[in-house]
Amino acid sequence: MPPCPSQRDLRKLVRKLDEDARPGEQRQALATITELSRDPDSMAAMAAAGAIPGLAQLMATSSRDGVGALASGALMGVFKCPSRIPHLVQLLGPENPVCIREIAAGYLSDISRDPEHAATLIAVGGILKMAQLLALGCSAQMQFFAATALRWLIHAAKAAVAISAAGAIPPLVQLLGPRSAPALQEAAAGVLSLLAADRDNVAPIAAAGAIPPLVQLLVPGAPAARSTP
């Protein structure tokens, strides 16, 4: 494992991510960042040096062969550090590119099944952010990751009351509709099923109009949204 470079060297490395940089330098910078991302201290240092926006920009816009994929891999390496949970929650905001929000939501969804990480995610406002990602204006990928994260937070941190209070029930009900893919319908139905286990949530779920689409999903031949996690 190479030693963590100084912040000065890391900033030089990040500058090589610029689209105007020479292809060879750009690829070498991505390879170095990917290697450094295996060390938690280096990951935090790279994020502080501004690597995340540069990687996101390359991932979203690069027209050079393989560069977008390399940037995606390097970005996932930088993200995979539990100490970055507060920063990742901030990246869920609408001011960030869709690709960044999707990656951040996916990683947070994955780690939210761990009780310790779930508690950290809740403490930094992750439930409200995830509830906001359920909105119809967000991508289906973000909606799916958000619903999955909320399901794990109920399991790992008994967060049903907080999820309901964050306003998640109405958008979850909307995701039961025919415009949603079957996997998204199933994810939303699963969260609603867990929320309904709390008696106080039954009336709000019914009031949001959940009963007709849930019944429709039980019709033979309808998309499979029947399982409860």
Summary tags:
single chain, 229 residues, elongated, disordered C terminus
Protein described:
This protein has helices at residues 7-15, 23-36, 40-48, 51-61, 67-79, 85-90, 98-111, 115-123, 126-133, 140-157, 160-165, 169-174, 182-196, 199-207, 211-217. The protein is built from 15 helices and no strands. The chain has 229 residues and is mainly alpha-helical. Residues 224-229 have low confidence and may be disordered. Helix 2 (23-36) packs parallel to helix 5 (67-79) and helix 8 (115-123) crosses helix 10 (140-157).
**DSSP summary: helix tally:** 15
Instruction: Give the overall pLDDT as a whole number.
Output: 87
Q: Low-confidence segments, ≥5 residues, pLDDT <50?
A: 224-229
| Apparent shape | elongated
The termini sit apart by 40 Å
Task: Give me a quick take on this structure.
By secondary structure, the chain is mostly helical.
